[in-house]
Amino acid sequence: MTERVRPATVYALVTVLGLAAFLYPFWLPTGSFAAQAHGGDAPMWAAVIGALVVVALALEVRRGTMNGAMIAVLAVLSAIAGLLRLVELPGNNAGIFFMVILAGVAFGPRFGLLLGITAMVTSAFITGGLGPWLPFQMLGLGWLGAGAGFVGRVTERLDPRIEVVTIAAYGWIGGFLYGALLNLWSWPFLRGEGATLWRPGLGFAGTIEHYWSYYFATSLAWDAAGALFNALLILATGLALLPTLRRFAHRLEPAVAFS
Amino acid sequence: MQAHTERPWHAVTWLIWAIAATTAIQLASSPVYVVLVIAIAWLVVAQHSIDGPLSRAFPILVGAALIFAAMRVVLTAATTHGSSEVWFTTPSVGMPEILGGFDVGGAVSGPVVLQAAQESLVVVGIVAVFAAFNAVVSHYELVQTVPRAFYELGLTVVIALAVVPTTIEAVHDVREADRARTGGRVVRKGRLIRQLVPVLERGLERAVTLSESLDSRGFAHGGSTARQRGAGWLGLGALVALGGAFVALVGREQPAALLLAGAGGVALVVAVVLSSRATHRIRYRPRHVSTADWWCIAGVLLTPVLLVTLVISGDDATFVWTPSPVQWPQIEIVAALAFLPLLAPMTRTPSTAPVPAPEMSVA
Amino acid sequence: MSAITFRDVSFAYPDGPVALHDVSLGVEAGELLLVVGSSGSGKSTLLRAVNGIVPHSTGGRFSGEVTTFGRRIEHHRPRELTEVVGFVSQDPEAQLVVDEVEHDVAFALENLGMPATAMRRRVEEALDALGIAHLRRRTPTSLSGGERQRVAIAGAIAAAPSALVLDEPTSQLDPQGADDVLAALARLNADLGTTVVVAEHRLERAAPLAQRAVVVADGRVGAPTAVGAALAAYAGAPPVVQLGRLLGWDPQPLTVRDARARAAERPGPEAPTGADSDTPAASGDVLAAARALTVELGGRAVLHGIDVAVHSGEVVGLLGRNGAGKTTLLRALAGLREPSRGSVETRARVSYVPQDPSSLLFSPTVRREVAETLALLGRRDDAAVDAWLDRLGIEHLADRHPRSLAGGERQRVAIAAVAVGGAEVLLLDEPTRGMDAASRHALERAVRDHAAAGGAVVLATHDVELAARCATRVVVLGDGDVVADGPGPDVLSGSLFAPQVLRVMPPFLTVSDVEAALARERR
Description:
Chain A is mainly alpha-helical. In chain A, about 75% of the residues lie in helices and about 0% in strands.
């Protein structure tokens, strides 16, 4: 029994803590920091927490099957997804998203989670994007991939066209959420009294207002374009790519029968 | 003949350098010091960068960060209205309630702009430091240094990086085959699928061959041993402790929060060690952190140490620049000198001579 | 007691047809066994069953027993057999895991948890056994195909296994690389006593190295016998064996030297005089030509001002070492490369079939793949699709998924998919790489028919036998210049590209030439 409960608990805690670390601007009370100057440390501490959370996740993920086929398929798809990030698309991330989402649908939630992590690391190496933001990108894309896996479980039985539209809708929403959450990391670097700036202790509603204004002015258009492109790519390629991916699913968990 | 450059510094040394530089920026966020760190990063890249697309990424990344920074300064200036030292006034537009109900435009005040610029520059500084890190480190070496607990993930990234050049070749081949099919003409309709599917299929078929090679060569992940299980429970415990730390923060119990966070961190470290011990792999000729590397690490860590000393001794007036009233940021020579140890990696230049065969020494 | 035994083994892939039927086989310790069979015959499945990849990594339904050096593979996964059997497959680019040769060779040892000093020694031994110690620091992407395969073999023998299993290790390599790999295998077998089981299409080089051979067809395996006997009835046997079969030589020769000895004892038919010889008809109009063509790639001139013309009704064999510029010339003729100087003139449509068919295939069925080309050109012509499927002998595969087909069949699909566009000039780049005999025959027939109908075909190839059989004209490129250009028999007779039959019984080029001469004599 513990073999099922522990991983589930770990994944749940990772999600909650990861979100909490992401969303610290919303709930961090003023009393926690001695001087205004230390408010600027908050993003770095969040990055450290994010890294710790990823470490815990990596330890847990290791306990399940990781045979040669999984490593090989993960590696190849990470390379393709990572390279796609180099392609200049609106929103900059659309290429890597649609690959991870489609692979998550085809191979399952655990694979989607792993692919999100490895694809993000690989693309960080390729594009020179290693930095304190990486744990959040890894978690974000991992969640996106895992969610796609759950979506895939449900849509497997549907008509292929309906399935692709559903996945595209998921990709649209996911792209948006990803952009909004990632933006949070660097927002608090700007502190002050302004209407788009962060102040610890504004309270939940106040912080949301400020963040919404900031988001609207800076990234909304960008992320909207990215999310839309994401959905379009899935619509355009899903029908052809999903069967291709699914053909290889049996090698990840070979079923042997002896007689 | 492509020789592997013998990199003078271990990947871990570079990582510590990056962390030290980032910490320095956080400690002394005045623009003069941040610009100093960016300059140091630029020098290091100029000397140590590995030939390839990543070294060219450095100016691009810094440029992109600067553009973003400028955007945010403009945004802040337009939406924050302090009353002192107005530089100029623009016509203002009131935003509808749904977007926050504030005014865009109006009085643009100097201190606000400069404060925003200072804080944006900090982000640019962090980007510059890590872009430099990417340009000079051997990624393969970096992944090799990862603790054995994360071996499978590290191996996946190593293989992915190794597969990247062949994937790029595959894309070229596929594009050419597509053109050749129609006698040299490019048919745009449906091109995405015609090119994406073969690249994906080729990659997956390659993955099958690779997995057979991995299996035949003994690749296996650790089973469920006592150490693995212990590591699993410790990981869970660490997460619970971190959760508790957050709760304590909300409840304004800062000491409890720090304690729980510390406990969580320690538990994770032990979990990683346990999980590493569970794997029976031995690394072949790993690159050890040499004495020279330790000296470099010690040198590089001097910078944050010196800065902290200055803070404690109260000599940190110039570290944070408060531009209200508007004034030039001050620079203090002693503080500036404290950044020089970040130049430690420049004491060795990379060599590009082909590496001769090594002697039979024990790793 | 054989080292490797199969007893009544049957196997079917998951949701696939049966690949092995009641196979029983015994491999002796220390021998070099050659496994021969056409694409899709079950060769690969058989080899993978030796170390357990079939069925543990592939999945499927397995019955029977396989014992490898005392271990039953039904109870052992491939990773438990690393120190017993090493495995190498045919793709040199897909087997290497790590970015540095030395570390890749050590990969198996790292997995086994060997102590560091033992690891060092084993790696040095493996590097020396394959003669690649000078490559230890290189990145795999900077190596040639032959070098990469040798690194893969070194990685497989690093754990000092008693046996080595190789699935067509030389099929993706040029002749030089193939020679290096086969020589290394012979050395391993002779010096270290490693049992080697190798599947090959390139029997000219591999046959003399083996002690015994076994033929696989339709999932059934014959008993291992002497190589000559096993190849006697095999369609894809090398020319000297076919010659021996034709002229009734006994024992079967496997090398050119043996064949010469037989020919001295029992000479074959008389060489035809000028009047009888089949000189090809005078060629027709020029369909495509390169004039003073210079092509530069990466700052280096790959082709130096060459003149080549392709006439209607010709089959041009384009020969030359790797890097001599064959592929570049084909690409320039197809309009895929801009000439730096000089020009390319085409008076007819030109289509190019690349080396790797998997770059082209993306449709769910073979028929749709071929029809797709027409759709891209804005036409629809089911008759043409059927005609080409027929011509290449793949009409029975029309509803299969192209990527589920074996190598030779896939290449034929790719050729059909390009040729159906109706181009008069077909440029084929290494079409017979990794192809089995049946596919080769179908290809040769299609090529000859296409030329006879007024088109032209240019075959860039390393396969001299192919050029000897099909080409009416042969052009040899060396370092970017045209070194020889003339009627097939003339060019091939003089050069180091002589086919086997020519070396044994000049002036005959192919076995069919000898057969025709025999028929004439009997008249």
